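Database export, one record per block. Field names are fixed; values are copied verbatim from the stored entry.
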Amino acid sequence: HKADRFYTLFTTGCILNTSEQPLKFYYEKDESFFPVPADSMVSPVITKDRFDFQMMSLEQSKLVRLVVGNSQSRPISLKGAGLFTSLEIREYSQSKEKRYQFALSIDAITPTPNDQIITKVLTVGPRFLLINQLTDSVWVIQEGSKFPEVQIDYGQHTEFHCLDFSSPQRILIAPLEGESKDPCWRWSCSVPIGAPATNVVKCRHREDPNRVKFIRIRVVQEKATSNVFIEEMEEADHLYRIDNNSKTFSVRVFQMNYEQFKEEVDFGSNRAFAWDEITGERKLGVEFSWGPISEGFETLKSAFVDLDKINSRRKIAIYNKTVGHEDTVIMKIKLEGNTKVLKIYDRRSWNRAASSLGYDNPTTLKEMAVIIPNIGISIIKSGEAARSELLYLSLTQCKIGFIETNVDHEIGVKVDAIQVDNQAKITTLFPVVLCPQSQAKGKQKEFLNLAITKRKQTTPDLLHFPEIECLIQAMFIKMEEDFLNELIEYFGNLSGESTPDTTSGVTTLDGRKMLHNHPLFQKDGDHQKTNAKIQAMMEEEQEKTRETKIFIEELALSPIKSSISFKKSKTQTRSNFTGTVANAFGVALLNIEDSKFNLNAIQIDNAFGTSRKLVDLIASQYKSNLTLGALSLLGSSEFFGNPVGLVTNIGTGVKDFFYEPIDGIVKGNPLDFGKGVLKGTGSLVQKTVSGAFGTVSKVTGSIATGISTLSNDQEYLEQRERDKISNKPKHVVEGIGLGLKSFASGVVGGVTGVVNEPVKAAKQKKGAVGFFKGVGKGLA
């Protein structure tokens, strides 16, 4: 009824222990302990009055410690929400040192979707969770550990700790056969479990090493927990396979440096393969013998191949002295599904296979070229009053070529020049936002050159690119803060606002999660819910394996060089004095002029995986470059005097000082040596002086920029920036002259401003208020 009142009972904080370890928590504020049993929840707010998580999160950043036995963890901060991390505790007992690893997460939840009541939940779970999906039980042990192995029965999962401090976070496994759990299989190689990965290991039979069992180990990350799936291998899931299509040769294969484990593949048969040591040299040794294995194996020739180099091909001539006959072995690596297959042919079987694929006789089927002299793209934004142009993109001499053969598709794109213009304002400091440096210097070079070769799809779910090359010339990027903000606003509006997903019962709002069915409020059937979660993760991973794979034999991306200039807006956002000074300081700090921002070239061979994996691979190559580039931008700030430019100038002078005389010696003429000394010395003096004066100039200029912002005269500030850009001095003497001229004009302008500004303001404002505001502006 409408008259009913509803009361919600809640706790401001609780601890959820989903691990198998009984834990204690130490509260630093009053130096007290409280236990949290395994697989249980404790709310200190209810059990003890002195625990109030809501107040704790505001008072301190480090409040509780996790306790195992007699050892404590580092302090745990309860600030924030949606955070997760891993934690390790070392326990010392009976002269043994153990390590325990845990996964921590902090969530802010509400008991009902519409309430603003918040409960903070600190969840402690296993760092490593092992899930046995084999048909038999399995032993698991930490590599090099002195602690005993852990047994996991079929279909079960268990928490795992890398107890041995001196050993890495890697595991070895050994299946147990039958109901008797016979340990008849040897230990596998060690596998890392600290990061997401998929590895296939093989366990050899203790009595017959040629008998092999393949096991897949997948590490799936869920927040800070590594879920380690130990699974049976199906035929289609093998990472490698050897197909001997020859009618002449039998082969033996082995991993490089592991010749003691040779596996035989008779002609007309195939065999799955995995590395004996996944961290070892990943090269496959192949030995060839004439005739079937049943007649004995005599090694006539051997070779090593790279199984990860898809579509590579190698020919080997083999001569048999016994029969006096020579034949040729052709080895080719193909991808069939997720399996990389080494196909071995003799001359006759290869001729039949090659003729059907057309590899030996590529012929051109289609050829097309398109040349577009100019392309113009205008970005229009809709305002409240009318539409206005935001930017204009122009491309010059766009050439697109396409060639189709019976084997490949080849695409080439070339663009001579590109330019992006700022159309947002009529008067702007940087009318050209982006253009090639060669274009600005009057030199014509192709700005973009892209070449892509794609193999015609012979394998389902695989896109094969023998070659992708991209060349981009150096560019200038110049932008004002106002224009950047308009771009962000425009493209942000295009993307639209995300709407919360109410069907799933989860809504994200300021880092808080409102969960209808959070484990905190549903504690029944934990084991079944864990199994359901594991099953969901398995289905998600299986879906990923069905994604289209991409293989790139050679990926070459040229270095990306740019010179960046940025001007912070001088628009006043605050009316008080403190805000004005802060804004002036920010203007001086964030102004950047001609800062070099470069990304190194990337060369990747035999890249294989899903599109997401390849993007992550390229991003990891650029990660360190982006960090150094950000530091370079900070070092190029006018506020610090552009120390990067100073070091670059002096470095160039020092290099010339030594290089020029050496160049003269190489030419063999004493006169050239003397000219080199003079030239190198002159360069050193010139670069040192210009660099030092440039640094001093930028420091004083940044101070002047900050002070001039205090005038709050937008017209004057814009004119000052335009003068700085258009009237750059060519040498020190001209710079001093321009500085004196600017100083004199500034003094005259300031004196006249004391008189003119009050009169001007009084006319505009029509009153005494405008007059006195003008007095203040003129004085500034």
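Remark 1: Residues 670-709 form the longest helix (40 residues).
Remark 2: The radius of gyration is 36 Å.
End of record.
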